[in-house]
Amino acid sequence: MSKKDKAKTPAKTPKIDIGIDADSRKAIAHGLSRLLADEYTLYLKTHNFHWNVTGPMFNTLHLMFETHYNESALAVDLVAERIRALGFPAPGTYSQYAKLSSIKETEGVPEAMTMVRLLVEAHEACAKTARSVFPIADKASDEPTADLLTQRLQVHEKTAWMLRSLLE
User: Fold this and answer.
1) Model pTM?
2) Which residues lie closer than 8 Å to 155 by C-beta, 6 or more apart?
3) How many domains does the chain have?
4) Do residues 153 and 125 lie in contact, with contact meaning Cβ atoms separated by under 8 Å?
């Protein structure tokens, strides 16, 4: 092979050596893929409700939902980037999310308080998914993933509490 040919040949991607074995990285990435699917589904549901909410609490819910979906938009990026840092492709299609997510789509346009109830359930689902990945990350001493999961748990549990308070 000539020097010219070598220059055209892409360099081999170095093996990932971050102190977490390949099987553990794969298991963590799979768990994070489920979380990403939940986070993205929650984002879409919240954005849909933001657009379509009506009723006496319109302004309050419209603004609240906007705050929530903006936070979710940032979260999906953080989760996807962690999957990539572990050496795996992040899912990024609706069909992948539909298979991986524990949150179901909402058909039609529910009334405002039903939207709130559905969002409580969706935030709790995200919390459960994040919590299910935690033992895998903890066993592998994957502190960055554990930190990400802790942050997501805090957001989802607090948001579920605040939304639940509207239903009392």
Assistant:
1) 0.89
2) 71, 75
3) 1
4) no
